[in-house]
Amino acid sequence: MTDCNRTETGDASAGSLHEKLSALPTAPGVYQFRNRAGKVIYVGKAKNLKNRVRSYFRDSRQLFGKTLVLVGHIADLEVIITSSEVEALILENNLIKELKPRYNVNLKDDKTYPYLVVTNEPFPRIFITRQLKRDGSTWFGPYTEAGQLRSILELAESIFPIRSCRLKLSEENIRAGKFRVCLDYHIRKCKGPCEGHQSEEEYGEMIGEIIKLLKGRTSGLIRSLTEKMHAHADALQFEAAAEIRIQLDSLKRYGERQKVVSLDGADRDVLAVASGEDDACAVVFTIREGKLLGSRRVYMNNTAGESEAALLAKAAENWYLGAMDAMPDEILLQHRLSEDEETTLKALVDEKKQKESGRKSSVRIVIPQIGEKAHLLDMCGSNARHHLEEYLIQKQKRGEAARETPGLRELMKLLHLPKLPERIECFDNSHFQGTDYVSSMVCFAQGRPKKSDYRKFRLISFEGSDDYAAMEEVITRRYSGSLAGELPMPNLIVVDGGKGQVNAAYAVLSAAGIDIPVIGLAKRLEEIFLPHTADPFNLPKTSPALRLLQQLRDEAHRFAVTYHRKLRSERTLQTELTTIPGIGPKTAMKLLERFGSVERIAAAGMDDLRAAAGSALAAKIHAFYHP
């Protein structure tokens, strides 16, 4: 950001709030509302901070729903002045993602959506990725439909001979002859720039044509390829002309498959939104040269009390902030935006268009009522309603699945828990005669495994075989170490073991002042132990609570044993195979992959060893195990 001035907050009080309201600037910027605890509860942007922020406090009778509740919680504010509305929009977007304020509309983050990238390097590569990097490459997306993106890439690869390798094709490397052509060259899917068979200039021209295709400029691309084909034919270069003719045929077939939705051949985007009680979905139609290239969508929640016009403005701003495609000349909107929202949106799109084309132009924002454009909006709105209905059905199914987990309900009743144990963590230890002692923690959320929160521990605070010390260490590291701030606290802790393990875990939690229920599940009789309780109790074998606990215990055991075996394998590999002269870690791993274990390597005959490692190493391995 540039030219941003920040007004810092002091102690929250009514007096300071009134003083700040009277001293607000008339410049564009971002405002943050805080509650009495100092937490940011709302972030907004404004073309004129003074007018926008004061509008919240003028007359409470004009406020409704969520806005009225928000104003009741405002105890302090902070403003950041920016040099333009576009800067304010970008800053607002970043702050909302960072702070996640309670009363802001939440837009589903598009960081997991795929992009198509044309890399910024000699002989650029083209591929699909979900990791957006500002490295000077040309990006297209984000795409909400991965299938649509793959079909576009397959089309480009079928028309143009793009290299698929990851070689660093610098001029020096090519001149030094470091590379050899691959199969793609021989089947004419690549022209072999790695050996200098294709110049960087010629390859760059081809990339320029691909970018035209990705931007939907098929008519201009067909004209330029036709001119090249005729030029080659006039120069009697018939083989080159035939290659271009094949490309033209593929392009024309692609153009015929595209749906023509506008006879004027314009570049425009169509945006519509559908809203529910607390969720909404916006859809964007991308139309280039009058042809519908595809549709993408943006989901929003926490939308109660927001008008569809406000949601449409929020979705449009979010879309154009992240969009990497060519900007349109015209935007069709379902609802009229406020003057500030329309000005900000136009400024954002115009700025991107200028960066893209190098010349100033102004996007047109239209709210059509009749005719072809109104029909496009109706079609876009129908798609938005369809996707919202699908989203709400899936959301309802997820909620019902969580509510219908009978094991959680029975556990809450059985253990007299204050609330449903929506998050349960289970621990298990594993070792071999006191060596390679490890512990695992698995997590179930809403009765289902949440593998992103699984953790494994290598235990180091004691020697020998001591299950109680092992349990003390892992409980301490999970709930008193760095993981205590990294992961949320569970509603229930389950340990694999009996009275001793449960009491050890309970003692650690009590010493740390942590009040979380903890129980143990012993394997032999499936008995359930509670801290400082003399006798365990059993559940019927058909009990949903018991089945859930068994699933937790078995998953923790599997995770611990897998980690323990890995450590044992690494230790065995390090202490035995790598002591053989001539065998390093890579060769040892290759042998293990071939034979499966150290024992099988030791028992292998000379012929098998020779086939896996060569004669010289085979003799050393055989001599080591058969002196």
Describe the structure.
The chain has 627 residues and is α+β, with helices and mostly antiparallel strands. 46% of the residues lie in helices and 18% in strands. The chain has 22 helices and 21 strands. The strands form four sheets. Strands 5, 9, 10, 11, 12, 13 and 14 form a seven-stranded mixed β-sheet that branches. Strands 15, 16, 17, 18, 19, 20 and 21 form a seven-stranded mixed β-sheet that branches. A hairpin with a 5-residue loop joins strand 2 and strand 3 (40-46). Helix 9 (218-234) runs antiparallel to helix 10 (238-257). The chain starts with a strand and ends with a helix.
> What structural class do you assign from the helix and strand content?
alpha+beta
- List the uncertain runs: 7-14
What form results from the Cα inertia axes? Answer: flat
The helix count comes to 22
Strand content: 15-25%
Distance between the termini: 72 Å
The overall strand count is 21
Largest sheet: 7 strands, mixed
Level of helix content?
Answer: 40-55%
Mean pLDDT: 82
Summarize the structure in short.
Helix content is about 45%, strand content about 20%. The chain has about 625 residues and is of the alpha+beta class.
List the helices and strands and how they pair.
Blueprint: E1 5-7, H1 14-22, E2 29-34, E3 40-46, H2 49-54, H3 65-73, E4 76-81, H4 85-99, E5 106-107, E6 115-118, E7 126-129, E8 138-140, H5 146-159, H6 171-175, H7 183-186, H8 200-214, H9 218-234, H10 238-257, E9 259-260, E10 268-275, E11 279-288, E12 291-301, H11 308-322, E13 330-333, H12 339-357, E14 364-366, H13 371-403, H14 406-415, E15 423-432, E16 435-445, E17 448-449, E18 455-458, H15 467-480, H16 483-486, E19 492-496, H17 499-511, E20 518-521, E21 528-529, H18 544-575, H19 585-595, H20 598-603, H21 606-613, H22 615-625
Parallel strand pairs: 10-13, 13-14, 15-19, 19-20
Antiparallel strand pairs: 1-4, 2-3, 2-4, 5-12, 6-7, 6-8, 9-12, 10-11, 11-12, 15-16, 16-17, 16-18, 20-21
Helix pairs in contact: 9-10, 11-12, 14-18, 15-17, 21-22
